[in-house]
Design a protein that fits this description.
The chain is mainly alpha-helical and 71 residues long. The chain has a domain at 38-71. Helix content is 46%, strand content 0%. The longest helix has 18 residues, at 51-68. Residues 1-47 form the Cyclic nucleotide-binding domain. This is Cyclic nucleotide-binding domain-containing protein. InterPro entries: cNMP-bd_dom, cNMP-bd_dom_sf, RmlC-like_jellyroll. It holds the Pfam family cNMP_binding.
Length: 71
């Protein structure tokens, strides 16, 4: 079952950074992909050190929260 197809630059697994819970889904690539992965401590360090990245990462997280609330 396909729930979503990610496009270049889109995030997956970001909900775990918000609620701290384990992943609730698996991700499978349909073809070759390049993946950028961060642990929670790595993300927190990046958010602390890079203000621009911090601001840019807020939009997809806010969209996810809005969608999950049904707004």
């Amino acid at each position: 079952m396909v729930l979503q197809v990610l496009r270049p630059g889109e995030m997956a697994g970001e909900l775990g950074f918000i609620d701290g819970l384990e992943h609730s889904a698996a991700i499978r690539a349909l073809n070759n992909v390049e993946v950028f992965s961060l642990t929670r401590p790595e993300l927190e360090k990046l958010l602390d050190e890079d203000r621009i990245w911090s601001i840019r990462s807020c939009a997809p997280l806010c969209a996810l929260c809005t969608a999950s609330c049904g707004a």
